[in-house]
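Cysteine desulfurase, Branchiibius hedensis. Tokens?
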Amino acid sequence: MTTHADPGVATPDATALDLSTIRADFPILARTVRDGKPLVYLDSGATSQKPRVVIDAERDFYEQHNAAVHRGAHQLAEEATDAFESARAQVAALIGAAPDDVVFTKNATESLNLVTYGLSNALAPGALDGVDPAIADRLRIGPGDEVCITEMEHHANLVPWQEFCRRTGATLRWIPVLPDGTLDLAAAPIGERTKVLAFTHVSNVVGTINPVAELVARARAVGALSVLDACQSVPHLPVDVTDLGVDFLAFSGHKMLGPSGIGVLWGRPELLAALPPFLTGGSMIELVTMEKSTYAAPPQRFEAGVPMAAQAVGLGAASQYLAGLGMDNVAAHDRALVTYTLERLAERPWVRVLGPTDPQIRCGAVAFTIEGVHPHDVGQILDDAGVAVRTGHHCAWPLHRALKVPASTRASFAPYTTFAEIDAFVDALDRVPVVFGLDV
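Tokens:
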């Protein structure tokens, strides 16, 4: 197996990205860890590193334009509002959306909770007054209705639906996972009682790319809402909300080269206009009296209080950065990294890779186990070599149970990841059998 020794060089047939230039954009990648070892950061699935343009965008907002957006008539307030709304447009452009259909939240977890609590509030008397009856019927979910998710969901797209069903009396069902880390679509419990189908675009553990078109078609056939967790797809794949056909889509800024503390919920405009708000207070109102209030149109309807303006500006910069790389190029680079990692790990029969063996249906991450060695111990050995990975259940306990493992070690990638870093990771991994005396 030929390795890629230069961390700034990728083979021409593997990627169109200029990795040397890209890596120079990320200040943290130049640092050392663990007594001077070069940082090999393979934990981007948990949180990605930030390019200088994102850091500078946040700093510039605080230094030059800091004010409460959508409030005040002074120049700083106007500049802050313009920067905030420009960021919304930049994020929308990345996913092929209209700006008014993009809601800023603090993370994808809040985005998904916004949907579940909004649907819960739809059951309150008068909550859907004036809403088109056909839309209102889709939003009212209660006893006898079913919510379908998958067994591979991150807890952020599992626990909120568990709580939603507890509050409303709906029944939670799920699509099981096959041993190869793909969904068992033949056993999908989607039927006439299904009112919501919520699923991940890409598994945060095994990197499986789920068949969105097929799942959305099955949801539409029974009139169910479709809710997509796109946290692991927006940073790695071209994502267009029109092409996907889903009703709601959620993702986080910190996984797509953007700041922490900012997330996105996209929704179909007719659904956002009908969905009751999750949080109430200032900024999201239309008219307030002592007796009652009416609410602003989306997206402001769902952005109560002073929003996270600087983080939004940083996310706008991250969206432009990714768009500048070209998401087709990013996806090709990611696939090359996954392919190369699978090839290197296949040379080590003592490593069990979780998930599909076909890199064409994988994205962003490779998780694995080593029999007789706890993932935390694997992670420690890698960390001693300067290689940062994630260990544990990755907020996906049910998926690990389905795969019959208690936990795993995960290497996850970003546009700045190099083939030489994969080599460094594999070289460090080779210390595990030596340290633990495995018979390999």
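Confidence is low (pLDDT under 50) at residues 1-13.
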